[in-house]
Write a structure and sequence with these properties.
It comes from Arthrobotrys conoides. It is built from 1 helix and 10 strands, in the order αββββββββββ. By secondary structure, the protein is mainly beta. It has one domain: Coagulation Factor XIII, Chain A, domain 1. Strands 2, 4, 5, 6, 8, 9 and 10 form a 7-stranded mixed sheet that branches. The protein has a 3-stranded antiparallel sheet with strand order 1-3-7, with no helix packed on it.
Length: 169
């Protein structure tokens, strides 16, 4: 590879806002990711009722982990019943995440909806960033118990270099 090609690649990946990839829901497993459709509500271009992988989400807390290409964002964590997939309820206050780079952010205990234990549901994560509002969803089933501690601190972590700072507002 010639130098100018390498330089171009580096520029592409180091650019503060490269055109592809907005944010990825890592935990729980997302329904799907399509970069071009991520601004499409409610699930970034995928059906809220699609269930390729279903995660048991303990109502007393379950981790939600995200990687973002944006270094100053706001997240909303919401859920809907599979039987009413357009009626979203907020699980938490809004969360502001800042970082000097591309943050990995994991909140280990996002609360579920206790009254929905035993029911199929959809988790929706909304990212408000400089390029707009973006969506990712995960197929879940609310189950009793928790907080769930089955992920290691490697799997559910916050970036430390540069540091990720999260504030609930
Ligand atoms: Cu973006």
């Amino acid at each position: 590879m010639r130098f100018h090609q390498l330089f171009f690649l580096l520029l592409t990946f180091l650019s503060p806002h490269f055109a592809f990839a907005h944010f990825f829901l890592k935990i729980p497993a997302y329904i799907g990711y399509n970069d071009a459709l991520q601004a499409t509500a409610p699930c970034g271009g995928f059906s809220a009722t699609s269930r390729p992988v279903v995660t048991d989400f303990t109502v007393n807390g379950f981790p939600v982990g995200i990687t973002s290409t944006h270094n100053g964002v706001t997240y909303e964590f919401r859920a809907a019943l599979l039987s009413a997939p357009t009626t979203w309820v907020s699980l938490t206050p809004t969360c502001q995440v800042t970082s000097g780079g591309y943050p990995y952010f994991c909140e280990p205990q996002i609360p579920g909806v206790a009254a929905w234990a035993g029911q199929d549901a959809v988790l929706q994560v909304i990212q408000h960033a400089s390029d707009g509002t973006l969506y990712q969803c995960a197929a879940i089933k609310f189950v009793t118990g928790g907080p769930y501690t089955g992920y290691t601190t490697t799997q559910c972590r916050n970036s430390t270099s540069p540091a990720t700072n999260a504030v609930w507002v």
